[in-house]
Structure formats: structure tokens, C-alpha cells
Amino acid sequence: MYSSSDPHMNSYPDSERRIAPPRPIDSLGGPSPAGFGRRSGDTYLESMIATASPAKLRLMLIERGVEVARHLAGLWRDTPGKRGTNEHSLKLFELLSELLSGVTDSKVEVCRTVADMYVFLCQHLIQAEENGDATMIDEIRLVLETEAETWRMVCAQELGASTPNSRAANLLAKTAVPATGGLNLQG
Description:
Blueprint: H1 7-10, H2 40-51, H3 54-78, H4 87-101, H5 109-131, H6 134-159, H7 164-175
């Protein structure tokens, strides 16, 4: 009988042969031969991340935040017993924190304003968890959707004015009327 590195395999007499139980395959981590056990979307996402610009990466985080916020608000509305802190609210907090950590230059006024906005959104999320208020999550989602639109325009500018979306963004920028109202980010 062959010796094994698994201690359970060697603990039985020679007349018995025991096969080690299968180990679960982690679709995102660990070595996997030729992508075995991976979802095809994971490979595509990893490729997108590896080749994305910093602006596109930020946009991807914001868009994921929008999705999580939409799902969380829906969950809280549909199942009142699931209100408060849960895996979705923790994921949203993690995304907001990651977005905040990406704002690094506190000497630039715009960076301070954006950092303050993400601190506000984190505080707003904590308050929403305490109250179980889905409308507060909707407010976070609306801010993130506005932020996503801004970053879509930045990404379009990176690609140049040859794409239809960037031409539309340029046209909108020329004709845009300043917005009024909205959430007070002053705390």
C-alpha cells in the first residue's frame, strides 16, 4: 500500500483502504487546473479587473454598491424580519469603505468633499440598519447612481470622443442645468 501525506489514510491497517473525502472547490480562490471549478463569469470579471483603468475600477465598485443597495432595500421591504445588519448591509458597508479608502489626497478640496460624502453614506447606512429603514438605503443607492454616472463620463473621456456614449455625455455636459435639492451632506 502506498503511503499518503493525509494522516487519516495511513491510520488504517494494510487490509483496509480508505479514500480521503473530497475537498470543496472554491470558485474564486486556490489553484485550479485549467480553470476547473470556476464559473465562466469569474474569469471574465478577473480579466476586466486586470485590464481596467483606475477610473473603471472605481466605477465597477460604485455599480456593485448600487446593486447591493437595491437588493438590500428590496429585502428589507419584502421580509421585515430581515431588517437590520445582515450580510448585504455588511457588503454595502465594505464597498462604501473601499470607495472611501480610494480618496487619498486630503489637500484637494474635491477629494475632501468626496471623502465626506462616503463618510456620510457609511453613517447613513448605520442609521438605516438601526431603524431597518429601506428608504434610507434607497437614498444611498440614489447617491451612488449619481456617482456612477459621473464615473461613466470619466471613463468615456478616457476612451475618447469616438464612442456614442461619450458624444452623448459631452452633449449633456454642454446643456446641463445645475441640480438643486438632494441630501444634505453637511451632517
